[in-house]
Amino acid sequence: MKLATLAEVNAERAARRPIIVITDTASGEQRAVKAADFAGDPLHAELDKHLRMGKSGMIEVDGKKLFLNVYAPTAKLVIIGAVHISQALAPLARSLGYDVTVVDPRTAFASPERFPDVNVVAEWPDVALPPLKVDHYTAFVAVTHDPKVDDPALLHAFERDCFYIGALGSRKTHAKRGDRLKAQGISDAQFARIHAPIGLNIGAVSPSEIAVAIMAEITATLRLPKERAA
What we know:
By secondary structure, the protein is of the alpha/beta class.
């Protein structure tokens, strides 16, 4: 890899922005494509596919064999609420390679003993979230059932354009949540992005089953094309 290309890759990775390096395996020619430039690239469909999957791989175009080297940020999961569902969800997400943080101002719940090997922040969202640098490669899950905690956290998730935003609660609860968030400036389109009731409908009952449903929905949102993940 040329030094200029390496510098470009390192700059994008430091900023948590995806980039793909395309190498012609016959000639050795290389070019780097930033995620912001995918739409205008002749290989945009293949670039989108490989980025969604998070995997490098070989493709053949017009008789040329090209290797796509994918550099994608490590996905984060921010869980608002140190509840029983979170205790099952956090280790499951970690096993899938997510960088997990649990946020809950209630110190009786947000403790290392209840969440071993997980970053736990026992602060209110307005204090806890800014240092986490939540971004588009973050899945955001609100499960406290307390509007004082969940609502400001969800507003932060909208501001940072998280790829997945989910919130626990019935349809009635979610409708009331909509009234509160829209009163604070959230648009109908933004509110529609919230996955609620949270998780895929698999008939989950226990906290562990609900965690599986949530993680499955997050995975579908990350990996599938938008038209199939919806």
